């Protein structure tokens, strides 16, 4: 089966090229960062929906400096983890809608799951998404000393050894939902798995690398740093990829005569409240211009590449479309996370 890379996956996602091909045209339509009304006049607070060390946090910390250079004031990063990003979402929504608070997160699937399963008192439409720049696949991998060499052996152990197998996921993530789906499709009671949920990818990865859990289901591209501690079991994709020696999820399940939906992985980027765009469109455009200009820089792209992070510009229109599409997919399966 042919392989593909994370970069090609990002650009081959359904309809993603529609947004990616308008970069040059959209640049002319976005106002300069030093826009009308002298915005910004003070530092901007970038709120991260996860703890330190995870993919969203690392992306925010790299991009914040470059965005600051483009927009002309410092961009300060603040972590507000908890409840599958609901803590950060509520914090951002309760701040003044003046463009001085931005939101950096893995918006899909966490924001949708906050609404669908977390009892959130907001909707995905309460935010305006400036850009999703980093798309990712999910990886299911075992601790190298766990003894699990393939996905069927892991699932059979969960079936036979009730409560003995421990797994790590980030609460409300696509990886979390995939594990629930696997158990349901295999006819394994959900309570057979001792599933530990974390508020950040960094915590979940540390747990599997240190042997506190037997396996993890998490974004693949942020997991290179613990590669030496892992045995990859499956990649949640229709095709193999170069970065991980693991079969696509349904190929891994073939011997069990099982097939599961291939869930879209993570979408990371930046947003503000929808009221910022409504009340201060020029400030929204200034933020978008700063992010787009940063991503157009060769040094920024090289820095992101060194850290194996995405640097795509799709723009606000396409980002908002993708968020609504993602919400519809997770709405279909949200009952598994209740």
TrEMBL record:
The lineage of its organism: Bacteria, Pseudomonadati, Pseudomonadota, Gammaproteobacteria, Oceanospirillales. Residues 1-35 form the signal peptide. It comes from Halomonas colorata. InterPro entries: BUG, Bug_dom1. CDD domains: PBP2_Bug_TTT. Belongs to the UPF0065 (bug) family. Keywords: Signal. This is Tripartite tricarboxylate transporter substrate binding protein.
